[in-house]
Every structure is written in structure tokens, then in C-alpha cells.
Amino acid sequence: xxxxxxxxxxxxxxxVNSETLESFEVATTFKVIQLLQAIKELVCLESPESALFDTxxxxxxxxxxxxxWKKGKxxxxxxxxxxxxDSILEDFSEASN
Length: 97
What we know:
This protein is an alpha+beta fold and 97 residues long. It contains 2 helices and 6 strands. It has one domain (1-72). The protein is extended and about 50 Å long. The mean pLDDT is 80. This is KGK domain-containing protein. InterPro entries: KGK.
């Protein structure tokens, strides 16, 4: 993986092996919104579109090697990082068209 994470949108579909998300009540193939809903239920939030998943919630962060707390917002997202081999195959496929 080349760490080029891309944010997944709520209605995109993800498939994982069956052991990956055992503690969540989601199928092995699910929409992003379904996983966010399961997380929401674990932390007792009102809706998956709550500020924690959308605009972010106010917070302060103390980062490594920082001298002070920094005010800002934090939010949860689901991101995808394609394996390097997959992107090479996609590039080859696009080039041959």
C-alpha cells in the first residue's frame, strides 16, 4: 500500500473477511453508512450523520512533539487505501482503452 487513503462516501460498498468486524453487527459486505451506524450504536450517538461523522466536534489535541494544545474539530471517517498491485492493473486497463 502506498498510504494514499481516500475517504469513502456513505453509500459506497465495502467487503471484509468475516473475522474483521466480529464485534460490530454488520455483514461482511456492507455500505459505509451501515458500519457508521454500528459504531454509532456502540457509542450511543443519535444518528450516523451526527457531528462526529459529519462536521466534526470541538476538541483540543496535543500532538507528538507539540508544546501546546491545539483547538479544532475531530471527526470519524472510513477511508480506503488501494493495494499497489490493484492500481497498477487499473492504470494498465485504462491505458489499453
